[in-house]
Amino acid sequence: MKTLVFTIMMVAFAICANAWLTSTTFIDPYKTFKLGDGEHSSFKATVVNKGKGSIGIYTTLLGKQPERVGTLESGEKKTYTIGSNTMVSFENNNPYKATLHIELSGARNLSMTYQ
User: Fold this and answer.
1) What is the pLDDT of residues 85-114, one digit of tens each?
2) What contacts 36, CB < 8 A, 6 or more positions away?
């Protein structure tokens, strides 16, 4: 019994250690959700597009122009490794609200804003 309890505790710890934030994020039509202000250490974002349309993904290194990383199609799951001092933006260019499931690990105290 002690072994089972210990195993369950270790699995729970491993899950918590991998993702420090899990969120369902909604983005209004024709709006952008920005993660990180460009002054932080690196982090990893695993994102699932739970909405209808595709989402444009951009990264912006502090003091630089945004760079398109790709597109996250409806139902698609991808993991993005975001470097230090880099912001990631999720752009919803659709006429309906977007829904993203996001799991973060790495840097903490990231700013989260809508534009």
Assistant:
1) 888 899 999 999 999 998 887 766 665 667
2) 43, 82, 86, 87, 88, 107, 110, 111
User: Residue 52 is encoded by which pair of tokens?
Assistant: 């209808």
Express each pLDDT in 4-51 by its tens digit.
333 344 444 444 444 477 888 899 999 998 877 766 767 788 899 999
Distance CA 35, CA 69 (A): 14
Rounded to 5 degrees, what are φ and ψ at 105? -145, 155
Question: What are the sequence ranges of the domains in the chain?
Answer: 20-114
Q: How many residues does the chain have?
A: 115
Please give the structure tokens belonging to residue 92: 């919803």
Distance between CA atoms of residues 52 and 3, nearest Å: 45
Domain 20-114 belongs to what architecture? Sandwich (2.60)
SS3 state at 85: coil
